[in-house]
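pasting for the record
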Amino acid sequence: MPAKGDHVSRRADVAAAVWRVLASRGFDGLTLRAVATEMGASTGLLTHYFTNKRDLVRYAHEIAAERTDTRPLQAADEPGLAALRVALVNVLPLTPEATAMSRVWVSFWDAALGDDLLSEAQRARYERWRGRLRACVEAAQERGELPPSPPEDVAVEAAAFAHGLVVQALFDPDRLPADRQLALLDNFLAGLTGRR
């Protein structure tokens, strides 16, 4: 039986391999064999950690959530519209690392649709994200940067715009490089400010 430190270290190796498989192959390509190959280990080694693919996928979700929640984010200088822009910029695939993160989450959506536990986790993540966007919208309205409108509706629209742009940029990166994504985001925000 390995020492506790070895177990923790090996689990970290597994987590890193899971992440690399997710980023390159998505959840559909996430198998015990693929992770073992990525680690240069046997599939048998992984069965000490995961009894089946569902356990592996749920662990992969934990890894994706942890990496998402601990990644460095841009911070807004001011509340309101500037903070809303930064919150949306933080989810766009503007760098190779952000692109890998986006690939993982987009592929995760499919896995979550077929698993009640993962689906609930995804619903809760969206609820938290929309809550942060809603707070930015409310601050922007208080500052007179956005016209009166139900903040929840604006938050849902902003989230939908950002994730729609993420998906398009993943499938057509040549047409939607970072500078074009940012220009489209600024056009979207300008449209919000011009509503009456």
